[in-house]
Amino acid sequence: MKLIKPLRGLRPSRELAARVAAHPYDVLNREEAFELAKDNPYSFLHINKPEVDVAVSLDVHDQAVYDKGRENLYRFIDEGTLRYDGEEKLYVYKQVMGSHEQVGLVAVASVAAYEANLIKKHEFTRPDKEDDRVNHMATLGAQVGPVFLTYKAQPAIDALIAKVTATSPEYDFVAPEGTRHVFWVIEDLTLAANIEAAFDKVECLYVADGHHRSAAAARVQNLYQKRNPAHTGEESYNFFLSVLFPDNQMQILDYNRIVKDLNGVDDKDFLAALAKNFDVTPMESVSKAKPAAAQEFALYLSKQWYKLKANANLLAKVDMKNPVQSLDVSILQEHVFSPLLGITDQRTDKRVDFVGGIRGLQELEKRVDSGEWKAAIALYPTSIQSLMAIADAGEVMPPKSTWFEPKLKSGLVVHMLD
What we know:
Blueprint: E1 4-5, E2 10-12, H1 17-20, H2 30-37, H3 45-48, H4 63-78, E3 82-84, E4 91-97, E5 100-110, H5 111-115, E6 119-120, H6 127-140, E7 142-143, E8 147-151, H7 155-165, E9 171-174, E10 180-185, H8 189-200, E11 205-209, H9 211-226, E12 239-246, E13 252-253, E14 255-259, H10 267-274, E15 278-283, H11 286-289, E16 296-301, E17 304-310, H12 312-315, H13 328-341, E18 352-356, H14 361-369, E19 375-379, H15 384-392, E20 403-404, E21 415-416
Parallel strand pairs: 6-11, 8-12
Antiparallel strand pairs: 1-5, 2-3, 4-5, 4-10, 5-12, 7-21, 8-11, 9-10, 13-20, 14-18, 14-19, 15-17, 16-17, 16-19
């Protein structure tokens, strides 16, 4: 079964690419998106966050919001801001964030392969978030946010992609947050065919980021198939927009937690309870507290940082061969959040919130020092190897286990559905 194929992309002109490119829909709240889009009529936020163009009183999930997104998409097409490529293409997308560089192939991935678990998942999805993406895709008749896929690195694919990046790019710009984005259109048909053939030899793909988008794409495919009596399986709705990166180029940052309270106990008793399973050491600075390895955590409580290191008592309770149990996020849940804080479901409990590692541990200090939150716990980043092992085992990670950086820009290419 083929995993990927080219697409007839809908893209901005070279001159407008930097102004069109926008944050993914799920990393900005409504107010942040409005501020970024209000002075930029070309921003793709008008399409992937169309609530920026409707009354604030209107709920973001109102059908009128999705309709506004469709209206804006077709306005971009009519005005020439977005233009179709003449034929199906593959593309290459490079991101440079500080010293980190990652280069991926832009293609469409097979819904059939996804449903056959040849594109493997590692997270549960939330029905409300899935419904939102279904409504957005179905109303626009387009997929506007790529799913971030990874695969076990292949030297043969690396060599082919390197041939593309040795040529002049279509887009090359630095976004306001400092990440450089470089984008190539593969015009060499032989090279494109060789890349596609090389991916035919890849055993499977993994969803790194975009579980709701990929699950929604599968539901939308079913909707389109049901209303198409001449369905063949080759229509564009049978595929979803993706960028595929080799696993050895993935950058996963820590995904940290803040909590509202200590479940009715004071600081001293909480630290004493932690000491049963962790070596608890006060640290003189945030830099020294930052976890340096797996099974290390950092706690910020009452303006003091502590290093928490799993002790022998805790490790004796954990099956380190189990890919889920051995995750730091699982250790934190099973030995801190559930028994000590009374937080049994981090996805739904309002006493916990999540802070991506891109914001740094200083953000944890800021949130706790504001008085709104009682404590913060920082983790060591989950490895890509753990992610793939869990997906291979058919298991799922606890919520908010991974934070990938850099984020893919939306708007550099759109996949229209039949």
